[in-house]
Amino acid sequence: MENRYLNDYFDAVFDTDRDRALEVIRQALDGGVTPEEVIFGIIVPSMEKMIGGMVTDSLVTLSQHFLASQIAEEVTDMLIPRFATAPEMQGHVIIGSSFGDFHGLGKKIVGGCLRAKMFQVTDLGINVRPERFVEAAVNGGAQVISVSSMMVHTALGDMGSRRVRQLLREGGLEERIKLIVGGAPYRYDEQLYLQAGADAWAATAVEGAEIISRLIKEVRAQ
């Protein structure tokens, strides 16, 4: 596969030019690049490069990252049915913002990255009650619940991830369903996830995908 497709696509999402990004994908497909190569050779590396730029030198803004995740999600949903063989999904993740938290941007970025990396994602939206997280995970056979919080009081509130942990414990589900958290409060205190009752936390979407993959392996090894 020609590197120009990767470079052109990254330049387009860096410029937040959705139409140009999708045109690059169309040109790649017309040029003989397979849907699998588009996902794993263009979309995923571009997402990782965007996240790297945001973390290491702050040259990538949150809005650029958000657009990249939206396009990644759109292209992934479009191309998965065109794979030569059905892709093996890594697992099922329930995501949502904690109860009382109406911030959804970070959660959407995580969802786009997870879908591009072949996770089944159920997005419950914002302001999600703990009972809905657990109910969706049980009914959907999910291995991981991911709770996003952008404020300390929603990260540590009685109706946040602590309550999700309590419900998992009371239901005897802790070995079957792992709990990961993310959001601004955890960046300032890397041990805060323990107070929130989570099994893990992640600073970025790419790191989150890696940790969720590990958690799913732990569940399946039980």
From TrEMBL:
<dbReference type="Pfam" id="PF02310">
    <property type="entry name" value="B12-binding"/>
</dbReference>
<dbReference type="GO" id="GO:0031419">
    <property type="term" value="F:cobalamin binding"/>
</dbReference>
<dbReference type="GO" id="GO:0046872">
    <property type="term" value="F:metal ion binding"/>
</dbReference>
<keyword id="KW-0479">Metal-binding</keyword>
<feature type="domain" description="B12-binding">
    <location>
        <begin position="90"/>
        <end position="222"/>
    </location>
</feature>
<keyword id="KW-0170">Cobalt</keyword>
<dbReference type="GO" id="GO:0008705">
    <property type="term" value="F:methionine synthase activity"/>
</dbReference>
<dbReference type="InterPro" id="IPR006158">
    <property type="entry name" value="Cobalamin-bd"/>
</dbReference>
<dbReference type="InterPro" id="IPR036594">
    <property type="entry name" value="Meth_synthase_dom"/>
</dbReference>
<dbReference type="Pfam" id="PF02607">
    <property type="entry name" value="B12-binding_2"/>
</dbReference>
<protein>
    <submittedName>
        <fullName>Cobalamin B12-binding domain protein</fullName>
    </submittedName>
</protein>
<dbReference type="InterPro" id="IPR003759">
    <property type="entry name" value="Cbl-bd_cap"/>
</dbReference>
<dbReference type="InterPro" id="IPR050554">
    <property type="entry name" value="Met_Synthase/Corrinoid"/>
</dbReference>
<dbReference type="InterPro" id="IPR036724">
    <property type="entry name" value="Cobalamin-bd_sf"/>
</dbReference>
<dbReference type="GO" id="GO:0050667">
    <property type="term" value="P:homocysteine metabolic process"/>
</dbReference>
<dbReference type="GO" id="GO:0046653">
    <property type="term" value="P:tetrahydrofolate metabolic process"/>
</dbReference>
<dbReference type="GO" id="GO:0005829">
    <property type="term" value="C:cytosol"/>
</dbReference>
